[in-house]
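We emphasize that the prediction below concerns an isolated chain of 211 residues; any contacts that depend on oligomerization or on bound cofactors are therefore not represented. The input was used exactly as deposited, without trimming of termini.
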Amino acid sequence: MDCKFIRKEFSPDGDLSKTVWNNASWVMFDHDVYSGGPYPQAETRVAALWTTHSIYFSFRCKYSSLNIYEGEDPTQERWELWNRDVVEVFINPEPDRVFHYYEFEVAPNNQWIDLEIDKTKDPFYDPVWASGFEHATRIYNKSRSWTCEMRIPIASMRVREILIGSEWRVNFFRADGLGDDSQRRLLSWIMIPGGTTFHTPTHFGLIRFVE
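Result of the prediction step, given as a C-alpha cell string:
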C-alpha cells in the first residue's frame, strides 16, 4: 500500500470528499479475516497520507446495521471497544521488531481506544499509553455507510522522521454487525488464514511512504 506525502496538516472531520483524498491510493477488503469468506455488505476501503509530523488514515465502510455503545462520552477512551463496530489500524514503524506495534480503533460514533502492543510481554497491551491521535467519523444513513479519519502523531510512536521510500508493517481490520464474534463480521486487509486473533503481526502487510 502506498502512503502519499502531503505538505499541509489538516484536522480530521470525517468528510472524505476533501480534495486531499482524491489522489490517495486506496485498498479495499470485504472478506473474513480467517476464512476469506465474502462480506460484500461490509465492503471497506482505506487510504493513507503522511506529513513530516503525522500519518493519516481514512476508511469508507458499508454497513447493514450499526452496533455501537449508546449514550457514552466519546471523548473518553473506551476499553473493549472492539466488541462493537470498529475500524482498526495496527501499525509497526520498526519492522525488525515484529512483535511490537501500535493499535488504533475508532467506532462509527467516534468512540476510540489506542494501545501499545508488545507480544513478548504478558499482558501484551499497554492501555495507559496515549498517542493523542485525532479522529472523526460521519454516518450516512441513506447510503448505509460511515466514514472515519485519523491523524496519528508519528512522535507518539517514537518516530523522529519518515523517510521517502521507508516501509512499515501494517494491517487494517473491521468488526461489523450485531452479536458476538461468532455472529458478526470480522474483516481484514491481509488475511490470517486459520487464525484466532487479529494480533498476528507476522501477517501484517507493508505501507510504503512515497512522494
